[in-house]
Amino acid sequence: MTTPRSQSTAPAPRGGSLAWGGPALRSMSTAPALLEVRDLVTEFATRDGALHAVNGVSFSLQPGEVLGLVGESGSGKSVTGFSIMGLVDPPGRIVGGSVRFEGRELVGTDPEVMRKLRGNRIAMIFQDPMMTLNPVLRIDTQMIETILAHERVSEKAARERCIEALTRVGIASAPERLRQYPHQFSGGMRQRVAIAIALLNRPALIIADEPTTALDVTVQGQILHEMQQLVREAGTALVWITHDLAVIAGLADRVAVMYAGRVVEQGPVADVLDAPAHHYTRGLLDSVPANNTRGQPLSQIAGMTPSLLRLPAGCAFRDRCAAATALCAQPVELRPLGPSRQVRCVHPLVVEALA
Amino acid sequence: MSAVPQTAILVEESPWRRFVSQYAASKLALFGLALLALVLLLAVFAPWIAPQNPYDLGKLDLMDARLPPGSSSAFGSFHYLLGTDGQGRDMWSAILYGLRVSLTVGVTSGVIALTLGAALGILAAYVGGRFEQVLMRIVDIQLGFPAILVALVLIATLGKGVDKVIIALVTVQWAYYARTARSAALVERHKEYMEAARGLGLSSARIVLRHLLPNTLPPLIVVGTVQVAHAIALEATLSFLGLGLPTTEPSLGLLIANGYEFLLSGKYWISVYPGIALLATILAINLVGDQLRDVLNPRLAR
Amino acid sequence: MLVYILRRLAQTLLVLLVTSVLVFVGIFMVGDPVEMLVNPQADQIERERTRVAFGLDKPMWVQYLLFLKNAAAGDLGNSFVYGRQALDVILERMPATLELAFLAMLIAIVIGIPLGLYAGLKPDSKVSKAIMAVSIVGFSLPTFWVGLLLIMLFAVQLGWLPSTGRGPTVDVLGLHLSIVHWDGLKHALLPALNLALFKLSLIIRLTRAQVRENVLLDYIKFARAKGLTRARVLGVHLLKNIMIPLVTVIGLELGSVIAFAIVTESIFAWPGMGKLVIDSIFQLDRPVVVAYLMITVVMFIVINLVVDILYSVLDPRVRLGSTPA
Questions:
Q1: How far apart are CA C217 and CA C149, in angstroms?
Q2: Between A348 and A41, whose confidence is greater?
Q3: Where are the alpha helices (DSSP H) in A28-136?
Q4: Which residues pair with A92 in a beta bridge?
Q5: Domains in chain B, please, with CATH?
Q6: Count of domains in chain A?
Q7: ipTM exceeds 0.85
């Protein structure tokens, strides 16, 4: 399988060209992947130089699978989501790698082709429901236009679908609500509307960028539960981007942990959370307050996220890792760990023996 | 959601240097700054640069009236760079002095209006309550009326004279400063560090001066540049109409007015050159102000 | 919504009252009132007669009430110069000013908004930079000076357009308008252009700023994420949002244009209210000045009110208030 690359004059992406660990991935499933991201590099041109927000990210997704993309702010997880959608705005652009959706290459493809996919086969849910919906347009306008942008149906039929979609996400009195404006909905309701919009055209893939972060904890739980049901019913694949490991635990089938623009660990949720292989993942798990004992100081990961403009050579986590050695100064690739996991570490916490 | 992932960038650079480099990113803005510097220098050093004192009636020779640019005086010795006006005044000197007057009046009124308006605005934000409501109502009402009308009425009522013009200009401008200062102060007032300062028991005066004020300055500076440009233009307009500065302190507007009658007979220089000087001044201030606004605007952070 | 309008009307009345006091104090109290009301050439007997007739021997507040009473009846005094009701003189000239203002705003909007949109959507293109450079020059040019240049260029040098005066009028719905036919339009073009230049630059800059700010916001990105065509994202989502501040500013600028017509009318000898008031100031025809002020104040207040209502109509957040459920 060749790795198509888009043209770029940028320096070769860091992380090595074998970063995606070919054979191990292929052995994971026999069905063709719905989404395959390989060595994706997205660069932002800043006054101080080129910043690689996404620095050689690879993962794949099966139909109906839920992948959790976990990382802190600045890890590149949101930009990855936007890159898949083709919504990276200048001064950013995709400079390397490939994104294959349903067998078709997305990077560098015709903008009209991308437009037809967006909201139709691939949908996205954003973080802040306050800012996502257009405040001066009615809800029905914003929903019906999504249908009409991709299908030729009568307005009446489209409206029926909208009512049905709103009801499905738990909004009562849908016909009246349709005629209202976004500011007349609460935060949780608005996000439900956004989810309904995402599901309108029955997409194969939904990318959800921290959709519950801006909501109350109680509402969070509800939305999570509902999303889970909805995607299971519809067989939609989901990429759930978040910084909250707890959310992933209940929701995802697999998880990919990102740090400084790269995937540092990947695998089935239960395996990764029970026995993390990468030190960063371990650190994340340890710093969850619930995982700490009362009376003891909260455990933290020492140091700070490095500036993406001045990444240390080799492992980006090197300066904060207790187990770092001289070997870590060399570029580290993503290596298979057993049949279904990968880790980017030369001294992983979990060794091959588990396989 | 900003275009560039901000949190990962930790660039160590002093805020001043960052500001300077951001400002200098626009060639147009640099040009504006250079032009402004030139205008200011010419105005400040006018008495030393101008070859003739245009106020000294004794030096004027009616024989030299209405000469085109580049000509020499009737008695040979004097070279009129930009020609002469209807009374034999050297245009170049008249423009230099006129620049001086226009800038003085514009900047003075701007500074007074800024001080007055900002003080009221910040006070309103800090004190709140009835005072704030009433003040903002007055501001809104005043801003609903065009500046030229307010100025006109004031001049018609108070009469002519430099001080009256400055009063009119201040009256027209203070409301903008007050509104800007209050908005900025309100934003700051609700920020956490203000509560922290209060919690630490700092005196009100200290809070206002050391914390509130520095953070309200950027938007005030931006408004200030636009307002000064407007003040200068307004004063010129009033002088042109004959309602502004008296003829003893000829501003550029008056010079332009003087040349109006000669326009149709082809003696364009009497009106055109002072106009160019006026345009250059206002343009320079606007160019600088524009870039300042872009640089200081948090919502356009790239 | 009704409550809102009523409240604004009440405020309007208050503003009118306050303004009337200010005008009264300003015009009639400063200096000797008799001098204001009487022809400067009148003799002592005439002055005494005027003093009594206008009740100037009565206390100030009585005078003010008289003033109000007369004003409410539409009597703001007689113009010395024209020998008629000052208010009538002003109202006669109003259509001329209004048609000039209207034409100027039309030019500014029709040219300004598309240019501003372009400059905002493609901020780095050469055309955009040229537009912005021209707009900042247009913004900095003193209106009266441009008027002079326009006359010099188009009337004197090129002889394409007349330099002064208004074209012949045609009766349209009871109003005497001149711009409805070509000859009138020819006369109105230069002054309207002069008036429009500043507003044009303002609208270009405002539109561009609004576009640049909004294009970065989430709702635009979300609209694109839904797979909407670019035309719809810009033409519906973006436009509806920037229309709100744009309409409010344009509305307010209309008042400013009417006021600024004073300058343009003086230069182009356009027989509108503006020229009248300047002439009146110099001729010491105070009743006319007072009439002008009262009329324009009423106009601005009405414009402000309309703009406020328009704003609440356009922005559903204001119109409906938030009732989150």
A1: 43
A2: A41
A3: 77-85, 111-117, 129-132
A4: A44
A5: 25-40+89-296 (1.10.3720.10)
A6: 1
A7: no
